[in-house]
Structure formats: C-alpha cells, structure tokens
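User: Okay, second chain of the day. Same drill as before: sequence in, structure tokens out.
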Amino acid sequence: MEKNTNKNTINWYPGHMTKAKRGLEKHLKMIDIVVQVLDARAPKSSMNPDFAPLFAGKRCVLVLNKEDMAEASATKKWLEYYREKGFRALSYSAMRPDKKKLTAAIEAEAADLREKYLAKGMKRTIRCLVCGIPNVGKSAIINTLCGYGKLKVANKPGVTKQLSWVRIGEYLEIMDSPGLLWPKITDKQVGMNIALMGSINELILPEDELSLHLIRIIGKKRPEMLMERYKMAELPEDPVEVLEGICKARGFIMRGGEVDYERAEKVLLEEFRNGKLGRFSLEEAK
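Assistant: Same drill. Structure tokens below.
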C-alpha cells in the first residue's frame, strides 16, 4: 500500500487491487458488457475514473445501488444525467432484491449483440463484468442474480478479492470483481464522500474529521435528520456540541462524567452508512 505524503491526497490501494486490475486487463477481450455499480448517495464520487479508459468501447449498464439511502429526487436527476450521456442507467436497492429488474437491464443491453451472434449461427455466451469501488454492493447484486450465498458479502471494503464467473441464465455469465479504487484520490470532497460511504479503510481518514464533516453537511441541508435520530430539540451550530448531544442521547458517558466522543463518532458514521439516519444524498447531478 502506498504511503500518503499529501494531506489532500488519499492513497489506499492495497496489493490485491493491483493484482485484480491486472486480472481484469487479461479478461478484457472476454467481456461484452460492463455493469458498473455506483452508490446512489454519491454516483459521481463512486465512479472510478480509471474504468472509462480501461473499458473503452464496451457496452455499459450503470446501477445506482442503495437508492433506499439516497434522496429520491436527487437519484432521479442522476438517472436523467447519465441517460442523457448515453448510458443505460437504473436505480436499485440490494435490500429489496429484484432479479427481474437487473436481468432486464442487462438483457436489453445485450439484445442486439445476442441477435448478431444468433444470425451467424453462434450460441456464444454473453459475458458481463460487475465492477465498482469497494462497498457499493457488487456482491449483493451478484447474489440476487445467481442466488444467495454464492459470494461473500460484508459492509466493509475489500471483501471480494478474486475474479470468478457465474452463469445466471441460458446465455449470460457474470463475473464479480474486487472493489477497485484509483491510486491517488486528489479531490478532497470525493475522498470524503467515499470515506463516508465506507469505501475506504477506516484507518485512512480520521473518524473525528469525518464525523464533524458529516454533521456540517447534514446540519446545513437536513438538520431534522440528526435532531430526530438523537432526540435534540434544536441542532447546535458547533458540530462538537452535536457529538456531545449524541453522547447524552445514547448514554456515552465515561467515568468522571466525560463524554465519549470517539464512541459517538463511530455510531454516527455507522448509522449514516447503514441508512439509519434517513435518506441523504452527498452530491447532486450537474
């Protein structure tokens, strides 16, 4: 893993990512369709910029996963944005599995390719790669397509580390892939967004910095989310005081009456990542 030498640049590129990217490059000729999974709360930030040149010329389906955690109006605008750019895009929630919705999008993208092969008398399998950055829900989507338990799923980055093909129908095969970041994330806002979504190892960005940033952006846009969740009559302007309020609401008090900021930070980030605070989008389509 590279060492971060610039406080505005995030470097988290474990060895398995380098190996996986090389593996993808070897499989490129076999791939017909790329299914890129994005986090609906921050589609732009969760789109790996290295994928565009890597998969240039490939058919693409964009799946904005975790739609149940994002604001519906924001997701609608993102879908319009990507469709205007020529992508086949759909929103989805792996928490409410819908195999037909996913399969229909892939089959629609593969339709003319399938007809082309059949016209030549070829019964060739259409191969689709499912890709994305860590923790956007790729494996959960694969499990919906081919049956639960096929792949290991966890709400933390870096669980899937191998490349594997799985047949999901008469002529479709899916290959899951490890979550891949790009080596240097130079846009601090992008880095903060994907850290908030849990796509970067929690040791890379300090939880105190992340939690204060999250309080600021939610407090500015939808303060009622924090007030309702943590039983506050009003939201303090100082994010540190908000953390104190969370400590008092949850009983995070240490010996001597000191509030346990660290525990409050962990709970706040975990509940945001799991959607327990409510639906919130980190960025808007522009």
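Residues 77 and 178 are 28 Å apart (CA to CA).

User: Thanks, on to the next one.
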